[in-house]
Amino acid sequence: MDSTRDLLIALARRYAFADLGALAPAAEIAEACEFGHRLLSLDAEDFAAEAKGVPADLRRRARACHMPQTPREQPRGALDSLRPAYGLLLEVIAVRWHRRELSPMIAAVHIASEYLPLLAFEPQLGHAGDPARWPEGLSAPGSRFGVIGDRECDHTKSEQSATNRTLRVSVEPGEGWRAYFDRQHSQVAGALAVCVADCRNPCTAMDWVEPEQRADLELRARTALAFADTPLVRLRHAAPVGHGFGVPSPEEVLDAWQRSRTALDKNAVGASALKDDGFPLPGLPTLFSAVAGAAIEPATLLDGVSSHIVGLLERLER
């Protein structure tokens, strides 16, 4: 029994929640493993799923990263603030790195790049891009935001479609809301950054941002756009035949990140990536913090789940 339990504890400490769940000697342990696996897999739709055997603090912190599945769902989770979700992303990236699971690690980096502009906008919006709470100024007279087919707008056709949808999706049924988040919300994030930092024909869409805050937001949004175009993020698309057929080596990941840091070193926000903060990709938490305008550190959610499962295993009858 001791050797079996030691093996299960080793799996828990390696965050191997799926493998451990398949071998779990008790329903309570299997439930905690399922909870941990959802977090590690970044299954944000199901972070709020019932897991009554998991400590309340862990469930509360997971709900803060949850993406609401209906327009009126409360609490708003990651639509209130993306900072807890980015803490979890950093923890997942670190765990995947240490487990040498580099393909899912790069996928997590890619997710972070897609929503990074919303992290930049959060201080001005007062939320994390909740379509039910967009400022009226986005649709002010003279605004091209969400206007399909306007040739003066720098948004692509898909971005125009996404921005048009985001202005009305909060009155759609749950199915439409979920489809929007599956396919278009990340495009809205990029479109907002283009509006404030990269538009060649500015309209009134960003006039709601206070002038004294505009320059700071522009810098942080421009850095978010730049991060999405770095060699590190492009590793997600490097496979010659679709995604998943080319897994980079650790050396390739570190080289791509070093080249990314150099490319980002164009302003004070991007230069934050050069800091050696002890993360496996040095400077990544510091960069996210600079873009957010607030401290973002790797979460301890997965570690908390691991410790909880170890405790359950250690209490098993010897």
Helix share bin: 40-55%
Low-confidence stretches: 240-244
**Average predicted confidence as pLDDT:** 94
Q: How would you spell out the order of helices and strands? A: HHHHHHHHHHHHHH
Largest sheet: none
- Quick one: how many beta strands? 0
From the spread of the alpha carbons, the general shape counts as globular
The portion of residues forming beta strands comes to: under 5%
- Counting DSSP H or I runs of 4 or more residues, the number of helices is 14
Structural class category: mainly alpha
Q: Work out the radius of gyration.
A: 21 Å
Distance between the termini: 6 Å
Description:
The chain has helices at 2-13, 17-23, 27-40, 56-63, 83-98, 102-125, 157-166, 174-183, 185-197, 211-228, 231-234, 250-264, 284-292, 301-314. The chain is mainly alpha-helical. Among the domains are: 2-94 and 300-314, no CATH class; 136-207, no CATH class. Helix 5 (83-98) runs antiparallel to helix 13 (284-292) and helix 6 packs across helix 9. The longest helix is centred in the middle third of the chain and has 24 residues, at 102-125. Residues 240-244 have low confidence and may be disordered.
